[in-house]
Amino acid sequence: MATKVLPQPERDEIRVEAVLQALGEPVRLTIVRALADNPAGVCCGEIELPVTASTRAHHLKILREAGILSTHTDGTRRISVLRREDLEALYPGLLTGILSAKQ
Amino acid sequence: MATKVLPQPERDEIRVEAVLQALGEPVRLTIVRALADNPAGVCCGEIELPVTASTRAHHLKILREAGILSTHTDGTRRISVLRREDLEALYPGLLTGILSAKQ
DNA sequence: TCGGTAGTTCGACGATCATCGTACTACGAA
DNA sequence: TTCGTAGTACGATGATCGTCGAACTACCGA
User: Fold this and answer.
1) Packing angle between helix B16-23 and helix B53-66, nearest 10 degrees?
2) Which nucleotide is nearest to B61 (CA to C1')?
3) Is A12 in a helix, a strand, or coil?
4) Cβ atoms of residues A57 and B65 within 8 Å
5) Are A50 and A94 a contacting pair, CB within 8 Å?
6) Helix or strand (DSSP H, E) at A1
7) pLDDT for A72-92, tens place per residue?
8) Are B86 and B11 in contact (CB under 8 A)?
9) C-alpha–C-alpha distance, residues B68 and A38, integer Å
10) Mean pLDDT of B63-77
11) pLDDT per residue over B27-51, tens digit each?
12) Minimal Cα–Cα distance from A101 to chain B, Å?
């Protein structure tokens, strides 16, 4: 039950370039969309992706280090949640704009 | 005076991945910010950038092909304008969010 | 017509990146 | 404790990307 939170940048440490660069990759964008659809958080493995587990972990790390998502442990599972509040505070409208894209 | 418009994607041809990937580069983000400050358009060479002319042309091409800016000729000059309306229609709030970043 | 100016195109090069397989850690169940 | 599951870390590899200089095109003024 949400025992530990993996290292992530504070709100004031988040940089736009890192956020945009992280979002500019199809697989990562898919992950972000999946998280947006599940406000309660999603277990990494539950998102269907055309890559192996190690690549998946790689992308999740990039998203976490960019400040886009937060990950906490739950047994052997890792639950990821979109950092909506932080992103909205820093770049109001950005997430909404991206998620409103046709596909 | 504004004789020709360089090839660019129609609004419905613009893809989010391309837009985000284009914006996720420091030099290109600088260009976009400069264009946002000058709604009337900016001549490429007027933006101060830490790169050579050829690299500058390269970045402008990527931004144009992503659908972020529009370029028309004016004699030997090329005037670039941010495609605010198109971007706002496709991804409402995205530009505002990005431009509101501290730096 | 002849520069000169503004910008693009074309390789080329080095750096970064996405991907993978393998090995590893951490946890829960039997 | 032993096994299976969930996920990470570590190279390695091939592809993409940012950068540059040099050569080229287009336009304007003298």
Assistant:
1) 150
2) C8
3) helix
4) no
5) no
6) none
7) 999 999 999 999 999 999 999
8) yes
9) 30
10) 95
11) 999 999 999 999 999 998 999 999 9
12) 6
pLDDT band at A103 (very low <50, low <70, confident <90, very high): low
Please tell me if residue B20 touches chain A, with a CB cutoff of 8 Å: yes
- Residue A2: what pLDDT? 53
pLDDT band for position A69 (cuts 50, 70, 90): very high
Query: DSSP assignment of A17-61, as one string?
Result: HHHHHHHSSHHHHHHHHHHHH-TT-EEGGGS--SS-HHHHHHHHH
Sheet holding A42-43, edge to edge: A42-43, A77-82, A69-74
Q: If you count them, how many residues does chain A have?
A: 103
Contact B20 A20 (CB under 8 A): yes
* Interface touch B29/A23, C-beta < 8 Å: no
Of B93, B101, B103, B99, the closest CA to residue B35 belongs to B99
Estimate in Å the CA B21 to C1' C9 gap, whole number. Answer: 23
The pLDDT, as a whole number, for residue B34 is 97
